[in-house]
Amino acid sequence: MKRCITLIFLAFINLSAVAQESPQTNLPRIKLQAGMYQIDAQVAQTPDQRSTGLMFRSDMPAHEGMLFVFEQASTQCFWMKNTLLPLTAAFVADDGTVVNLADMKPQTTDSHCSSKPVRYVLEMHQGWFAKKGFKAGMRLGGSPFKP
């Protein structure tokens, strides 16, 4: 019996390790707007969802991203450990105004922070905002943002 419990425990530990190295692709989704452009964003709102973010994703459609939602506004800092795709983070105020943008290099531990306290961070493919002419000071649309 003890050996059986030990084997079940070891199997659980192994499954947990595998789950942590898998991309999360089943999060709730929300539609956002950046000017005339539509964004299909996964929403990471729990601490576990936010800490995994877009890690381990080898691909992502061009119009998709991930919106990180925090309980309260504070200086948010992101890094790219275990993240395979080059991303741009938009640090976003409650009203949807982009406070600042940061291009982030894959698989690095460099810290990229908001220049002011924010509750939202939207990650998109690196260069997506630049290609659309979307800059700091412009406003995203969508249900999370208060006018």
Describe the structure.
The strands form 2 sheets. This protein has a 7-stranded mixed beta sheet. Strands 4-7 form a two-stranded antiparallel sheet. It is an alpha+beta fold and 147 residues long. Helices cover 20% and strands 35% of the residues. It starts with a helix and ends in a 6-residue tail after the last strand. It has one domain (25-141): Sandwich (Jelly Rolls). It is built from 3 helices and 9 strands, in the order αββαββββββαβ. It has helices spanning 2-20, 47-52, 128-131, and strands at residues 29-34, 37-44, 64-74, 77-78, 87-92, 98-104, 112-113, 118-125, 140-141.
Mean pLDDT across residues:
89
Number of helices: 3
Going across the major beta sheet, what is the strand order?
Answer: 6-5-8-3-2-1-9
- Sheet-strand content, in percent, reads 35-45%
Low-pLDDT stretches: 2-19
How many distinct beta strands?
A: 9
Instruction: Choose one word for the global shape.
Output: globular
The CATH architecture designation is Sandwich
Helix % is 10-25%
Q: Which secondary-structure class do the elements indicate? A: alpha+beta
Amino- and carboxy-terminal Cα gap? 61 Å
CATH superfamily: Protein of unknown function DUF192
Main sheet record: 7 strands, mixed
